[in-house]
Specification:
330 residues, mainly alpha, globular, 13 helices
Length: 330
């Protein structure tokens, strides 16, 4: 059975479904005056398979039919349950996804040994959903268990281990367990240097490591990590790729916190330009970026430009509210 990761760490059974990606949970800055989007936002799509409501409905019917005809706890059923859960998760239907993830895990635990790689894959999916719902204390145990399984089966240098180290590190940061997170990121970063220094996963690890440094107030050490992550992504995807957005937001935060407002403005302006190309000029997501941009422009005494950006953010929100109010309720 072939599986792949989407951006949020979900594992998709390729025997039933093409690949697609979704977004990792967003980290809002706890610092006043600047809001950043760390990690991989939902607006960044990595290309491959994008699920639609039609495909979700089709898979739902396929799963129901297979479930009726399959014997209890059949391993043939599990990929369909898992993939349907991933689709629900992607659409924001966490309440529908959770029991399917739990069912897939329960089947794999009964069919396979408790430390089987298939069990680890289900654990990662379940933990990822908990993390996206900010249920960090519930996400931690399945991530830890998945990590232990992978280390036992594959050894300490497997790529999957680096991914889980990063995922668990994000949970530790959210829980304020900075010492635990630092140990994981040091290990993951060392693995990246040894095995995949130029790959996007390395950029993810370096950028999330920078997030930890920012949380601890270590801005000087955070900056080179984000700079390195940005360089990797620029080399792989180009200077205007939407994959750069979270790292540019992270750099803007780092510069801002160090009082380097001109550099922060440049990074944020670049983020805004990329998002405008991807989302369009009136997308509601631009309003929060413009809010940050206004704050930086005021810091650098560009009051006229700040007023224009503020007016634009207001217009975007008014248009979004008008559109929402005109849509029929179902």
């Amino acid at each position: 059975m072939s599986l792949s990761h989407n951006v949020s760490g979900r594992l998709i059974d390729q025997s039933c479904l093409g690949r697609f990606t979704s977004g990792r949970s967003k980290f809002a800055s706890r610092l006043p005056g600047l809001t950043t989007r760390r990690s991989r936002p939902a607006s960044i799509i990595l290309g491959r398979f994008m699920p639609t409501r039609a495909s979700t409905h089709k898979l739902s019917r396929f799963t129901s039919a297979r479930w009726r005809s399959a014997r209890k706890h059949s391993t043939r059923t599990t990929p369909s349950l898992n993939n349907l859960a991933v689709l629900y998760d992607f659409e924001g239907r966490e309440a529908d996804a959770l029991p399917l993830y739990e069912r897939a895990l329960a089947i794999r635990e009964k069919v396979f040994a408790a430390d089987h790689p298939e069990v680890a894959k289900s654990l990662v999916n379940l933990a990822g959903l908990y993390r996206e719902e900010n249920r960090y204390s519930e996400a931690e145990p399945p991530y830890r268990r998945a990590l232990a399984i992978d280390e036992k089966i594959f050894g300490p240098e497997e790529l999957e281990i680096a991914t889980t180290l990063d995922d668990l590190g994000v949970v530790y940061i959210a829980e304020g367990k900075y010492a635990d997170a630092e140990a994981l990121y040091k290990r993951a970063a060392a693995m990246a240097d040894r095995h995949f220094a130029k790959q996007p996963l390395a950029a993810t690890i370096f950028s999330d490591f920078a997030q930890l440094d920012v949380a601890e107030g270590h801005y000087a050490s955070a900056e080179p990590l984000d700079v390195r992550a940005l360089s990797i992504l620029e080399e792989d995807f180009g200077s205007s790729s939407p994959r750069l957005v979270p790292v540019l937001g992270g750099l803007a935060e780092i510069f801002y916190l160090q009082g380097r407002y001109a550099e922060a403005t440049t990074a944020l302006q670049r983020e805004l330009e990329i998002q405008e190309k991807v989302l369009g000029p009136d997308d509601p997501a631009l309003a929060s970026i413009l809010d940050n941009y206004v704050g930086l422009l005021l810091k650098t005494n560009h009051t006229a430009e700040a007023a224009q950006a503020q007016a634009r953010a207001k217009a975007i929100r008014m248009k979004a509210n008008a559109t929402a109010s005109s849509e029929p309720a179902y």
